[in-house]
Amino acid sequence: MTSRIFLAGASGAIGRRLVPLLRDAGHEVFGTTRDPAKADTLHRLGAEPVVVDVFDAAALSDAVAAARPQVVIHQLTDLPPGLDPARMAESVPRNARIRSEGTRNLVAAAREAGVRRLIAQSIAWVYAPGTPPYAEDHPLDRSADSPRRVSIDGVAALETQVLNTPPLQGLVLRYGQLYGPGTGVGAPPAPGAVHVDAAAQAALLAVDRGRPGIFNVAEPGGPALVEKAVRELGWDAGFKLPG
Fold it and tell me: What does each C-alpha distance from 115 to 14, 30, 71, 96, 110 come to in angstroms?
């Protein structure tokens, strides 16, 4: 089934790989960026560019309403390429704000616009210590110290809003650490990482597949179990875009 899709964060690492996949599947894509200079790139990729700041709730609501999407995909982040340690301290609180306040605005806009399905990016390295590999029902590490605790609180805020705002069908994709084109990382940085193309494929598949809930999306053999994504979404951890 083809859909009108509002892709928040279309100019990010996953978003740039996801737009062509969505278009090739027949979907109509409205892709957001905060930077007007990136609008032409989104247009070349096949998306209708939408220049909007997720923290401007009124403008975001108007943008989602104008697009009239059936599906919203949340790929918004504010992190340095390759999770550069020298820049992470300043990025962590900004990214947590996107996950909490930005998600709140996006969820509200989606609900007001009558969106059917909401798919959101999360991360798979926030589980509480235990015996890996961890399934999706393993608790998050809410007792961690800062700055990890700041990140985890942001993740918890995002996931709670996405999964508990009826009548939206909320799906959360907990990605392993990204590598590949546009990420600043050329090879898997740790066990259970995920290539950016495979991460994008999971979001594409979640448009039409999978029950509402959480899915680990990472390469097998790492700390996160990924059988649910393989079984319900038909996800392929080895997926790569041609070329």
Answer: 22, 14, 6, 24, 5
